[in-house]
Design brief:
Elements: E1 13-16, H1 24-33, E2 38-43, H2 47-50, H3 53-63, E3 67-71, H4 80-90, E4 97-102, H5 104-118, H6 124-128, E5 140-144, E6 156-161, E7 166-171, E8 179-182, H7 192-209, H8 217-239, H9 244-264, H10 269-279, H11 285-311, H12 326-339, H13 356-366, H14 382-391
Parallel strand pairs: 1-8, 2-3, 2-4, 4-5, 5-8
Antiparallel strand pairs: 6-7
This protein binds fe (ii) ion.
Length: about 400
């Protein structure tokens, strides 16, 4: 028996399943009874409308006589400026709660806005540079529209500080969404690329949370389930974007992945990707992760072969867990990702060998004062980071 105290977290009330959106009226009625009559709504440009969620929410707020201010300017990889703009726009009505609608970026942003509305003398830069520790935020309702981030059930939020090339993460108990809605019906409007990238994000959450120094039997169990579900249902969803059963299970996997990182965080792939997409904001998070994952597996396999051989079985059945399998495991995972149609490596998304020293420099700066690299199952130094970026420039040889 290992003598280690682990965290078993599940901080949000999550309504999950087809028709989960029908719980929104009772949530808003509850808020109304509690005296909440003004809410901020945080979204991206179009998915809140395209998904059909807006048609449900708007009449509901009007019927309950709940005033709202809607900021719809959150882009992928949102910056601290966007968050300050959002706060500036919605604070005019003095919101008492925040409703985020969308994927990871709008949901993360709604959490940050909920903190900043409670701390009017602070900016988003203060929050993401960790210049204060919030103990309070407005209540957040997260209406999730993708099957990737798990943001609707965790205590994390990320935003980019452009001048630092830092996509920085915060994690506070006060930003768990009070209520989360996961209705697979609303994920059907995702494009093929988004289906792939969000599901591969989930896969990375599971693999990292099962292998950090905070991992437990619980996160390994979650990872086993997540990998199995993604391996089974992602190819189905790719073949048929209208398959609701596939979306149901991919969404379920993303909730489990969110709970897993909430308990045991991440280690190498996520912080290394955050630097990539801070440098090139057009790079999708899930794509960046998928590019790095094979080399990260190769790097940590000698230390974590026992866990990786178990959880990767649905993708690479023959693994036994011995260190000499590291390269084969990495190549097999890479080939599986390629087989889904995600064939890019760092060279294909605009990075070259010359960029690597700078990437390592930004990454180290972002991790100053504590970061998830410290949870890596293998010791991390500059050479290891350089090696992973280098190996990810092109397919593993
Ligand atoms: Fe992620």
């Amino acid at each position: 028996m290992e003598s280690k105290v682990v965290e078993l977290r599940c901080g949000s009330v999550n309504y999950f399943g087809i028709g989960a959106i029908e719980h929104l009226p009772e949530i808003m009625e509850r808020y109304k009874k509690m005296g909440i009559s003004r809410v901020a709504i945080i979204t991206g440009r179009s998915s809140y409308r395209k998904s059909g969620v807006w048609e449900k929410i708007k009449p509901l707020l009007e019927a309950l006589n709940i005033e709202y201010a809607h900021y719809d300017g959150i882009k992928a990889n949102p910056t601290v400026e966007q968050l300050d703009d959002a706060v500036k726009m919605v604070k005019e009505i003095q919101p008492q709660a925040v409703v985020g609608i969308g994927g990871g970026s709008p949901l993360d942003s709604s959490k940050a806005v909920a903190v900043l509305l409670r701390h009017p003398d602070r900016t988003a830069r203060d929050l993401y540079r960790k210049r204060f520790t919030p103990l309070e935020a407005l209540p957040v309702v997260a209406v999730n529209l993708t099957h990737g981030t798990g943001s609707e059930v965790d205590r994390y939020a990320v935003a980019t500080i452009p001048e630092d090339k830092d996509k920085s993460g915060i994690g506070f108990d006060c930003i768990y969404p009070q209520y989360a809605i996961d209705d697979p019906t609303f994920t059907l409007t995702l494009s093929l690329r988004k289906v792939l990238y969000t599901s591969l994000d989930t896969l990375n959450h599971a693999i990292e949370a099962a292998t950090t120094t905070l991992a437990s039997a619980y996160t390994v169990m979650l990872a086993r389930e997540v990998v199995e579900l993604v391996a089974r249902w992602l190819p189905v969803a790719v073949d048929d974007l209208s398959n609701l059963e596939a979306r149901y299970w991919l969404l379920y996997a993303s909730v489990l992945g969110g709970i897993a990182i909430d308990c045991a965080v991440v280690h190498l792939t996520h912080p290394m990707e955050h630097t990539l997409s801070a440098v090139r904001p057009e790079l999708a998070h899930g794509l960046g992760l998928s590019i790095l994952l094979p080399s990260v597996i190769k790097t940590i396999y000698p230390a974590k072969g026992d866990v990786l051989s178990q959880i990767l079985k649905p993708i690479v059945p023959k693994l036994k867990g011995t260190p000499k399998e590291a390269k084969d495991a990495a190549k097999a995972v890479e080939e599986w990702i390629f087989s889904l149609g995600v064939k890019e490596k760092l060279h294909d998304v605009g990075f070259s060998e010359e960029d690597i020293p700078e990437l390592v420099k930004y990454l180290k700066k972002a991790q100053e004062g504590g970061g998830s690299l410290s949870l890596s199952p293998v010791p991390v130094d500059d050479e290891l980071l350089r090696q992973i970026y280098y190996e990810s420039l092109s397919p593993i040889k």
